Amino acid sequence: MGDVFPHGAFLTTDGAEPVPDYDRSTRDKFVQAVDKDNGLLVWEVGVHDPDPEARKNERSVNVKIAAEVQPVPPEALPGLPFRPVEFEGLEVTPYLDTNGVRPKLAFSLRARGMHAPGGDSRRKSGGQHGSTGTEAAA
């Protein structure tokens, strides 16, 4: 966590949203994505990286979390909308993004769970050991 987010991380969404399975969903029927490694439903939260040296387009990522039920985010800071978060077992996976004019190297983040900074990572918040995680598109 400290290597990827040395200045911490903040959720930018109020909660986790279900991620669609684009291959199985249709215009009339929503099918939620399932994590291929553990068979759990996939949810997504927006995350802000406050690192002052991060490029503008690298400050926001969408983190995907696999959990049996919708993960509950940590509490917001008193009087502010910011929700500090720590991810457990964070892994970085590079991939080639070919969606633009030129292919570019991009990164996905993978975590086993999330919790409030300094909080108890075993606290139930929608999955096993907090929330179980999968990829985060960077």
Describe this protein with a few key phrases.
disordered C terminus; mainly beta; 6-stranded antiparallel beta sheet; 0% helix; 138 residues
How would you describe this structure to a colleague?
- This is Plasmid replication, integration and excision activator.
- The chain has about 140 residues and is mainly β.
- It has one domain.
- Helix content is about 0%, strand content about 30%.
- It contains no helices and ten strands.
- β7 and β8 (about 105-110) form a beta hairpin.
- The protein is globular, with a radius of gyration of 15 Å.
- Mean pLDDT is about 80; it is low at about 120-138.
Write the layout of secondary structure elements.
Layout: E1 10-11, E2 17-18, E3 41-48, E4 60-67, E5 83-84, E6 86-88, E7 91-97, E8 104-110, E9 113-115, E10 136-137
Count of separate DSSP helical elements = 0
Q: Ends: how far apart?
A: 15 Å
What characterizes the major β-sheet? 6 strands, antiparallel
- The Cα radius of gyration reads 15 Å
Helix content: under 10%
Organism: Actinomycetospora aeridis
Region (Disordered): 1-23, 112-138
Protein name: Plasmid replication, integration and excision activator
Briefly say what this structure is.
The protein has 138 residues and is mainly beta. 0% of the residues lie in helices and 32% in strands.
